[in-house]
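step: validate -> pass
step: tokenize input -> pass
step: predict -> running
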Amino acid sequence: MQYTKQLKHLMDLAGFETLSNVQQKVTPLILKNQNLVVTSPTGTGKTHAYLFGIFSKLTKAPYTQAVIVAPTRELALQISRFANQLAEGFDHLQVKTFVGGEKRSSINTHAQLVIGTIGRLNDLYLEKHTLQLQKAKMVVLDEADMLVDQGFIEDADMLLSHMDASIQTLVFSATIPVGLQPFLKKYLTNSKQVQVIEDKVFNPKIDFKLLDAKHLSYIEKAQQILQGLNPSQCLIFANSKQEVSQLAYNLRTNGYKVVELHKELTSSQRKLAFQKIMDHQVTYIVASDIAARGLDIEHVSHVISCGFPKDLSYFKHRAGRTGRAGKDGVCFTIYKQEDTMTVNTLIKEGINFTHVAYQNGAFKEIKPFNFKPKRLDEEDKRIISLVKGKKQKVKPNYKKKQNEMIEKHHRKKRRSMIESKIKDAQKERAKKKSKGESL
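step: predict -> pass
step: emit ->
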């Protein structure tokens, strides 16, 4: 691809020497006013793909010409950071970001590029009428599948229904879920589909390590292995807000520089946490999956996954926060015995795990992960039959819950066997003692 003078200027501002596959495919199409649906894995450079196209088309006219919709405040702030980096090369261009927490007086209706979360944009444009978007010629929905996951796709529908009918619409997403398809059918019937499966320039270089929690909880094991790491920045994922808060509290108590990211933080708390991360003021970031999608944290050398997300596709998003842009990264995944089926699923999908143990302050490679189903005796079969019961309407995570109950039975059975052996040994010792005394 031949780089135009303007595109080369944008690349220099962003510090790029070359473009990724998705950037090479998408940027020229944006310049041709093409509606696009772009699917590409995390970490392949989607953000700059549309930013390069947008900044190539913005003019000096003092009104909003392009709108970027992000599913989370953190992602909106990150996009804003990249956009402002490019805007520094243009005297006449302004970028304004709208997420929860701004005062009404801060609204700037003359910014050529507006970035925000869907709720905040709708509030300012459709409810308060302080933000003027009706003249915009371009709209981007970034990480659109997250808008579906979080129940915001109807809000995006409302926004677009009040914008210029001929607006150039660009949808970027890691996947195209069923819930997104009606929106695409309504607004992007004449769109071009762009799919990028992998990219040698931006392809993550990740060393996947698998670690058995054994008798510890996920967060206890995560705390333990931190002693053996020396990260530039370490991103630790937990599956609930409670786990995130507990682990972050434990780390702070033990002197670690840490921030936490989850939905229940206030806007100011999230902004402060994000700023500390980007300024490299903290080494450890404990997060729910809100941080797994789209965020580009430059210095993350290690990722720790405390168990697995409910939506297994998020596991790759978690891991993809490291090893970006040609750098090496390590992803430690802590599992329990009830996660066996999940681990085997990821192995079948191509994740090449190295099975390790943490001993004496160091990681030691052990036998490859190769758990086989336990042989079942008649008692096991009876318990499994009781657990599974009759066929009924399937509930979310029912297989996982069944496996947990079965594993609980096996633990109880093992304890019973151990207790039985102890009693037998005690009886044997008592007999020997009795014989000794009779002599």
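step: describe -> The chain has a mean pLDDT of 85.
step: cleanup -> pass
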